[in-house]
Amino acid sequence: MSEIIGFFYTTGFAYIGIQNLVMILFALTFIWLAITKGFEPLLLIPIGFGMLLGNMPGMDEMLQSVSVGGSTLNSLYQGIRLGIYPPLIFLGIGAMTDFSTLIANPKLILLGAAAQFGIFATFIGSYFLGFSILESASIAIIGGADGPTSIFLTTNLAPHLLGAIALAAYSYMALVPIIQPPIIKLLTTDKERIIRMKNPRMVSKREKMLFPIIGFIATALISPGGATLLGMLFLGNLLKESGVTERLAQTARTSLIDICTIIIGFCIGATTTANLFLRKESLMIFCLGAIAFGIATASGVIFAKFMNLFLKDKINPIIGAAGVSAVPNSARVAHNVGQLYDKSNYLLMHAMAPNVAGVIGSAVVAGVLLGILG
């Protein structure tokens, strides 16, 4: 009997509690949304399964959880804690990104810049709600809808909030198709939604090769704190556009980014345990993150409408919503919303300009915050 009892205490049944069950339900919901609804399965399945593993009862007692130094999960998590994975993901993003539409129509970079207003508005709001200035900056960056940038900044400013902030950032990236369309429809008229934009001019190979070099120099001078992310982003793009490093570019945009996405999502999920997630602070972060993302979306749309007051060739304000850096989800959502009102109006290539500008913008803002507060 003593051996049976001893065996029982090596199983998870001995430690299971209501909090474990609640978090397991959350994990299964993430996996269900990814598989049945198609909400960013590349993100939600690793996160959901990591959350499932991290909340299995007995993990702490068996010294297997991510919080136990020396455990396998803890070793994998060091890539997040030390800020290793986010730059590698930016390298892959750069290698798969075509900046042609932004180069052809550079004024659209202003939409990516306008969307960053959500970060600053939430920064102020978080501070007045009682978070410290470093915590407020980390929470606010969720508004950029950029998971790697959120992780990069939070590991430097407020590492104790990393689990909640990373989960919120990646969750809202996945929920772009749900969050953005109502905001777009609320802020635009039927007439604005059917605006047709001129096809962008052809961009030369030389311009494509010069852009990552000039872009890095300019942004790194403005935001040295974000130079690591920006450098990897533009390096990846130069690998793609140079024409002489296609093998490296192919690796960066496929194998490397896929491996990093799996590990980072899995580790984020594994850190989202009941004792950290089911508390008032974490729930406030999720609410503030949603507000930040909503403000960022609205800011891009509103600024596009403002620009139209001065432009002869009008911008379809729908593409302003793509100013957040959820690439290419936001651009795809903008295109799909436009298609609801005019099936022959193709906005995807136009929306990609503010979308990639948003990637650059969120990294620049993160660097500025890190430079001021770090």
Structural features, described:
The protein has helices spanning 2-8, 18-36, 41-54, 72-81, 85-96, 100-104, 109-115, 117-128, 133-140, 147-157, 162-174, 176-187, 190-193, 205-222, 227-241, 246-271, 274-277, 280-308, 329-341, 348-373. The chain has one domain (85-257, 275-373). Helix 3 packs antiparallel against helix 11, helix 9 packs antiparallel against helix 10 and helix 10 runs parallel beside helix 20 (348-373). It is globular. It is an all-alpha fold. The chain has 20 helices and no strands.
Keywords:
single chain, 374 residues, 71% helix, 0% strand, globular
Short description:
The chain is mainly α. About 70% of the residues lie in helices and about 0% in strands. The protein has helices at about 1-10, 20-35, 40-55, 70-80, 85-95, 100-105, 110-115, 115-130, 135-140, 145-155, 160-175, 175-185, 190-195, 205-220, 225-240, 245-270, 275, 280-310, 330-340, 350-374.
Topology at a glance:
Layout lengths: L1 H7 L9 H19 L4 H14 L17 H10 L3 H12 L3 H5 L4 H7 L1 H12 L4 H8 L6 H11 L4 H13 L1 H12 L2 H4 L11 H18 L4 H15 L4 H26 L2 H4 L2 H29 L20 H13 L6 H26 L1
Helix pairs in contact: 2-3, 3-11, 3-16, 4-16, 5-10, 5-15, 5-16, 7-18, 7-20, 8-9, 8-18, 9-10, 10-11, 10-20, 11-16, 11-18, 12-18, 12-19, 14-15, 15-16, 15-20, 19-20
| Number of domains as seen in the coordinates | 1
Mean pLDDT: 89
**Poorly predicted residue ranges:** none
What's the overall geometry? globular
- The H-and-E topology, N to C, reads as HHHHHHHHHHHHHHHHHHHH
Report the sheet-strand fraction: under 5%
Q: Largest sheet, described in full?
A: none
Structural class, from helix and strand content? mainly alpha
Q: Helix tally? A: 20
Q: What is the C-alpha radius of gyration, as a whole number of Å?
A: 21 Å
How many E strands? 0
**Distance between the first and last residues' Cα:** 58 Å
Proportion in helices:
over 70%
